[in-house]
Amino acid sequence: MAVRHRLIRVTPSVVWAVLADGSRYAEWVVGTSRSEPVRGQWPHLDAAIRYEVRLGPARLTNETVVRHCEEGVRLELEAQAGPLGSARVAFELRPWGEHCLVIVDEHPLRGAGGRLHNVGFEALIQLRHRAMLARLARLCENEAPDARRIEPEEPAVSEAFGAGHA
Prior knowledge:
Layout: E1 2-8, H1 12-19, H2 25-28, E2 32-39, E3 48-55, E4 58-70, E5 74-80, E6 86-96, E7 99-110, H3 112-115, H4 119-143, H5 157-161
Antiparallel strand pairs: 1-7, 2-3, 3-4, 4-5, 5-6, 6-7
């Protein structure tokens, strides 16, 4: 399973507001070019959004369906990718001080993705999650008026290891 986390410097409610807007899916999900709700009320159970993936001149249209939702805390989706199959993608939001720790957990469920799943595939999912969580963080932090955008400073090498040590 590909599990990744990121501390986003806003409250969980700000992150949830973005996750709960199905029309904004393409703004933070890597690989999608547009999205729109097609069924139900996103992000309630069995609601779906349609999204488009562009591969050169080709355009693939797929759906993502809500399989579990705990408002403000957890969202579990089934992302369907045609012949590639489908994957479970779960987002968990944890308060972390005044910020939000977002944990994403993805694994293939059906189709070629499940049959071809291996260590190399896991590495690709990890890279995709890193980019996706960075997009989500940027989107949330830019929209929150009181978001802290300043990252903590890293200690200088001399401070971390002691001055003059080789």
